[in-house]
Each structure stands twice: as structure tokens, then as C-alpha cells.
Amino acid sequence: MVFALITAWLAYKRAQANGRNAILWAFAGAAVFIATQLLVSLGCGVFFGFGIALFGWSENIYDKAAVPVTIVAIAASFAASWLLLRYLDRNTSAENPDDAPPPPPSFN
After folding, report:
1. Statement: the pTM of the whole predicted model exceeds 0.90
2. E strand or H helix at 61, and its extent?
3. pLDDT value at 95 more than 60
4. DSSP 54-79
5. For residue range 67-80, what is the model confidence (pLDDT) as tens digits?
6. DSSP one-letter code for 97
7. Per-residue pLDDT at 107
8. How many other CB atoms are there within 10 angstroms of residue 102's CB atom?
């Protein structure tokens, strides 16, 4: 939970520096961190559930895999947060020179 708050704080600062809605991006940063952990844990649980139902795996696989699944979920949350913060580092006020119209013709 502490890392979700740190992600929210960093997202707030970076969004504010680039002229974006800082409060919205702070909530998005915390939500990305928490949702990534939930989705990875849910995906692993469904995978283990299919393994138990279809292949006869032992039901105590949940207990054995709790720590590795948690580590993978936290690593995925850090990666997702890093991608979000990297997106927020892009400067929105800088004009892209590829989008600028061509210079006027010169008839000299």
C-alpha cells in the first residue's frame, strides 16, 4: 500500500509539472499499482484452479505458490507504474515538428 501511495505522489508531481490534471493522474497511479497486483494474483489463481480441476494438481499449491505469486505481482505493479510514470514524463506543451505545416513557398 505504501508503494501505491508513492506512485500516486510521483504521478501527481509529474502530471502537475507537465500541465496535466494532477489529481486524476494521482488516482490513476494508485489504481494502476493496485489493479496490476489484483489482476496478476487473480490470473495465477485461475491458472492454478484449472490445474487442480483438469490435471489433478494438489490443492495446497495455493499455499506453496503464495510467496512467488506475490513477488511476481509486486514486480508487475512496479513495471506498470514505471510505464505510467514514463508516459507522464512526456511533455505535452512541446509542439511536434512533424505536425507543423510546411513553410510557405518562396518565389524569388
Report:
1. no
2. helix 61-64
3. no
4. HH---TTHHHHTHHHHHHHHHHHHHH
5. 999 999 999 999 99
6. G
7. 83
8. 5
Confidence bin at 23 (pLDDT 50/70/90):
very high
Q: Each residue of 72-84: b (16+ CB within 10 Å) or e?
A: bbeebbeebbeeb
Domain boundaries, the chain: 2-91
> The C-alpha cell of 98 is what?
512533424
pLDDT at 93: 63
Report the length, in residues, of the chain: 108
With CA atoms as reference, report the closest residue to 4 among 29, 25, 36, 22. 29
Grid cell in block for residue 75: 514486480
Q: Which residue has the cell 500500500?
A: 1
Q: Between vectors from CA 23 to CA 71 and to CA 88, what angle results, nearest 5°?
A: 65
**pLDDT above 90 for 86:** yes
Per-residue pLDDT, 79: 97
Backbone angles phi, psi at 106, to 5 degrees: -115, 125
**Look-up of cell digits 511476481:** 72
Separation CA 38–CA 59 (nearest Å):
21
